[in-house]
Amino acid sequence: MHDLLYLSEITGFTDRTLRNYLSTGLLKGSKQEGKWIFTDEEITDFITNPNVKPSLTSKRNALIYDFMSESNDANRTLMVLHINADKEKAKIISDFFCEQMNHIKNVDFSFSYEKGKVQVILKGEEKSVHKIMEEYYNL
């Protein structure tokens, strides 16, 4: 079970956008103790929905395009990972990166899973992205 913050982190959508998807029925979930909660199946159904996928793709592409057009003096990096994974491994990868995003605030993150392929995009301060990747490879 995952909350709205988790879903926001993996999709890049704001709470307001996700709540709009809930009101239209494109996103299914349940309220527990006043918080929206989503099962893995509900999340998968949402991110693979043909009406949602174009927006997800735009969010992912925006990370890359924004990085390429930035003129920033800070040392920044962009990391794109493509990983072959079954659903179980994809969930482990998603959970790992979402947990990292709870601790490191100066990194933008995108996650997608489709047809046995995970794509993770990290954009941010070089040291922070390096730290996350170091932790990932130490799993």
Brief account:
It is built from six helices and six strands, in the order βααββααβαββα.
Topology:
Blueprint: E1 2-3, H1 4-11, H2 15-24, E2 30-32, E3 35-38, H3 40-47, H4 53-69, E4 76-84, H5 87-103, E5 107-114, E6 117-125, H6 126-137
Antiparallel strand pairs: 1-3, 2-3, 4-6, 5-6
Jot down its keywords:
alpha+beta, 3-stranded antiparallel beta sheet, 52% helix, 139 residues
End-to-end span in angstroms? 22 Å
Give the overall silhouette: globular
Classification by helices and strands: alpha+beta
Instruction: Give the topology string: H per helix, E per strand.
Output: EHHEEHHEHEEH
**Are there runs of 5+ residues with pLDDT below 50, and where?**
none
Taking strands numbered 1, 2, ... along the chain, how are they ordered across the largest sheet?
Answer: 1-3-2
Give the DSSP E fraction (strand runs of 2 or more residues): 25-35%
Q: Could you give the count of β-strands?
A: 6
In this structure, how is the largest beta sheet organized? 3 strands, antiparallel
Counted by DSSP, the helix tally is 6
* Chain-averaged pLDDT: 89
Radius of gyration based on Cα positions? 15 Å
In helices, the fraction of residues equals 40-55%
Describe this structure in words.
By secondary structure, this protein is α+β, with helices and mostly antiparallel strands. The chain has helices at residues 4-11, 15-24, 40-47, 53-69, 87-103, 126-137; strands spanning 2-3, 30-32, 35-38, 76-84, 107-114, 117-125. The chain has a three-stranded antiparallel beta sheet. Strands 4-6-5 form a three-stranded antiparallel beta sheet, sandwiched between helices. The longest helix is centred in the middle third of the chain and has 17 residues, at 53-69. The chain is globular and about 45 Å long. 23% of the residues are buried. The model has no long low-confidence stretch (mean pLDDT 89).
